[in-house]
Amino acid sequence: MKENFKKAVLLLGMSITIPTVSIAQENIETDISADLVSGYIWRGQDLGNVSIQPTLSVSYKGFSLSAWGSVGFEGKDTKELDLTLGYTIGGFSISVTDYWFDGGSGYFHYGSDNTNHTFEAQVGYDFGFLAVNWYTNFAGYDGVNNEGSRAYASYVSVTAPFKLGGLDWTAEICATPWANDFYNASEELHCNGSNGFAVSDISLQAGKDVKITRSFSVPVFAKLTWNPRTEGTYFVFGLNF
User: Fold this and answer.
1) Mind giving me the DSSP string for 3-65?
2) Are 120 and 129 a contacting pair, CB within 8 Å?
């Protein structure tokens, strides 16, 4: 979810470590972009079909505030709006995200039993050759365990970028560390979550810039995802503008 935000955080962290670029961080920087994807797959879960996913972000001296959304072409697809406040220094990053989905309570409903918001905290470190991130839901709709108690559903991700055959690749493996029904729940695939530690996303993504004219190119990517817990397999193609 928020691939553009992750890219922005990485670039921001790199700029802090390079003196000639860090001068630019004295000014507020803004960015706007959008992805067009053949399917909305997030953390090993199928959340929709063909979708437009816009991003708007503002950053200043390591701090960033971004808005990310997803709107499917089909009326049945869930609409989503995510707001993220983050801070990055070197390879270290920390953030808090408010995820909101339509189809239930209105946007300004925040009660524990009457909300479509999920609040998540993230902490991670990017070593360059490997990035590790931990995510935990701490408020709103955050999932329950097998006993029906609050689960504080969590997710850990390990990603490794590399180059091969002229393309930029990213390999990723992710897991949920304990029982919850927030991740890996699928009626279609007859899975109601995880009973404990479960690998829930093994993926491989490749991307490159496709030149349209001499001065204009469009980044494209393809991503193959397998969820061992639900046995779901997905292949997505996307364009970034």
Assistant:
1) HHHHHHHHHHHHHHH-HHHHGGGGS-EEEEEEEEESSEEETTEEEESSEEEEEEEEEETTEEE
2) no
Beta bridge partners of 217: 211
Model confidence pLDDT, tens digit, residues 43-84: 999 999 999 999 999 999 999 999 999 999 887 888 999 999
For the chain, the average pLDDT equals 87
The pLDDT score that the predictor gives to residue 91 is 96
Q: Cα dihedral sign for 11, 239, 135, 64?
A: positive
Domains parsed from the chain with CATH numbers:
3-240 (2.40.160)
The percentage of residues in the chain with a pLDDT greater than 90, rounded to a whole number, is 63
Question: How far is Cα of residue 132 from the mean position of the Cα atoms in its chain?
Answer: 13
End-to-end CA distance of the chain: 17
Residue 193: left if φ>0, alpha if ψ -120 to 50, beta else—which one?
Answer: left
Cβ-contact 30, 57 below 8 angstroms: yes
**Non-local CB neighbours of 186 within 8 Å, separated by 6+ positions:** 45, 46, 230, 232
CA gap 109, 180 in Å, rounded? 23
Q: What is the mean pLDDT of residues 12-36?
A: 64
User: Which one, of 63, 60, 65, lies nearest residue 26 by Cα?
Assistant: 60
Backbone angles phi, psi at 24, to 5 degrees: -65, -25
Beta strands in 73-213 (DSSP E): 80-89, 92-101, 110-111, 114-115, 117-126, 131-140, 154-164, 167-176, 180-186, 191-194, 198-211
Residue 135 CB neighbours (<10 A): 19
